[in-house]
Amino acid sequence: MKQLLNTLYVTLPDAYLRLEGETVCVMIEKEKRLQVPLHHLSAFVLFDHVMLSPALLGRCAADGRSIVWLNRSGRFQARMEGPVNGNILLRQAQFRAGDDERQILRLSQRFIAGKIRNSRQVLMRGARDSKDDQEKTVLVQAARSLANNLKKLAHAQNPDEARGLEGDAARIYFAALPNVIKPSARSTFAFTTRNRRPPRDCFNALISFLYALMLGDCRSALETVGLDPQLGFLHAVRPGRESLALDLLEEFRAPLCDRLALTLINREQIKDKDFDKRDGGSVLLNDNGRKAVIAAYQARKQEELIHPVLGQSVSIGLIPQIQARLLARYLRGDVEDYVPYLQQ
């Protein structure tokens, strides 16, 4: 099992990262704010205007340590990659599957099934915890509708039909999700539907940021096992689009991102003051909000649970790696099917 190394998130504007021996120093206006052993880090995620020394860039490229640049809202901007890794035979198998309509349908069904099932679990948990009978009824009815979509998914005749069921399930899920937010927080985190680019409310700004963080972990996991993150099955292939990483992300949106967002809201660890509302109606996490969310996200990745396929206790941060390896085994023909991640 791969060791769960740390990702260093740098949110301070105009920070400068440099290599000092076998450590990374974070400098702000020539003052050393942080010094971390390099061997403790597997990746860097940098927000806004963060710079790195040429020596650190070269060392990360040589070691295969990823560097990702995001804008202040968490949207991907750039990524530094070292030499291509993995087995060419695996990527050939992936490309063959990408040209096979049956494989596209089958894998799309698996990714969507994981998403719908995990979304249903979030709603059912909310129903169990709810003290309001009307809200409990709304959540249970939505969960039943998702179960119905899950049954229909197994009989989808083509990828477009499967995608249609996924879109309908997402609509049902987000319509019911406000009932999981505690009443005292609903004025701040009121939302009616999923919106993005830019987010129009605090809740969408929060989950968009978490999705961006998780997407980076999914891409890193796929690259680690040797898969091409751009050749997806559920998401259409487009130049520059991380389609396979987006496919894998679907399994983790509800159980790992949405549930963390709900926890932060319901425990009042994230509040209205952690967001900036801009002209035109867009809403983004501010510096303090991003720091709070990143800290919670990193802490969550260190927690352990029993993986449903392996039957072993693993760190949550390793789940994208495990799923990427299971997907690679399926594409190589080592196993008969790909089993998506299903939160218990």
Considering the protein shown, what is the CATH homologous superfamily of the largest domain? CRISPR-associated endonuclease Cas1, C-terminal domain
Q: In the CATH classification, which architecture of the largest domain applies?
A: Up-down Bundle
Domain count: the total is: 2
- Give the CATH level 1 class of the largest domain: Mainly Alpha
Radius of gyration: 20 Å
Instruction: Please tell me what the overall shape is.
Output: globular
- Main sheet: strand order: 1-5-7-8
What does this structure look like?
This protein is of the alpha/beta class and about 350 residues long. The chain folds into two domains: about 5-80, Ribosomal Protein L15, Chain: K, domain 2; about 90-330, Four Helix Bundle (Hemerythrin (Met), subunit A) (Up-down Bundle). It is built from ten helices and twelve strands. A four-stranded mixed beta sheet has the order 1-5-7-8, sandwiched between helices. A four-stranded mixed beta sheet has the order 4-3-2-6. It has a two-stranded antiparallel sheet with strand order 9-10. Helix 6 packs across helix 10. The chain is globular and about 60 Å long. The chain starts with 5 loop residues before the first strand and ends in a 12-residue tail after the last helix.
